[in-house]
Amino acid sequence: MRLFVATISVAILFAARVHGDVQPQKDFDLQRFSGKWYRVGFAYDSLSFVPYRNQLRINVGVLTPLANGNANMSMWSQRSSGCRCDVYVYEKTAVPGQFTYFSTRHNRMKDITVVETNYSEYALVLKHKKMNREFTQVALYGRSHNLSLQLLEKFREFSLSRGFPRDSILTPKVVDDCPPAGK
Question: What 3-state class would DSSP assign to 47?
Fold first, then answer.
């Protein structure tokens, strides 16, 4: 029983540390943030993903602002069945740079916070969801799939500072044919 209580306490402290004190980009501008992004790196606090880390590839997304302040995110990912596109509606919140969206995969609402971006090169984004426990992911997005070593290190340091273990921090391989040319 003590082990169970200790495990739950550590999980709650970890979730609060990873998500609780993160603020969005100051003066976030959705129009400047729109366009094509590559998910060049991510850190995920679910240990179940670690065995699959060598199979993961860079995803490509296009963020399109909507007139009401929301945004559509079209995200392409390579699957065993081929290149697949999923579209998500990022709903604005009262705080610029923070959004929510419904994940059909997990049948849950998730929170998205754009923590830092220079709009033209990179973005650090925090994704958070509550299921049977809280899960958090840090993603590094780039306007190109090749980012500088300094930005990759910034992403790793940010992820480590949020409490992610080193083997949960990943920079996947490039997929050349996803999305197919012309998309």
Answer: helix
Across 128-158, b (16+ Cβ under 10 Å) vs e yields: bbeeeebbbbbbbbbbebebeeebbebbbeb
Here the contacts of 104-107 (C-beta below 8 Å, separation 24 or greater) are 106/131
Sign of CA dihedral 80, 82, 83, 89: negative
Q: Answer whether 177's CB lies under 8 Å from 58's CB.
A: no
Q: Rounded CA gap, 14 and 112, in Å?
A: 18
* Structure confidence by residue, pLDDT tens digits, 40-98: 998 987 767 777 777 778 889 999 999 999 999 999 887 778 888 989 999 999 999 99
Q: How far apart are CA 128 and CA 59, in angstroms?
A: 18
DSSP 21: T
Are 41 and 171 in contact, with CB atoms under 8 Å apart?
A: yes
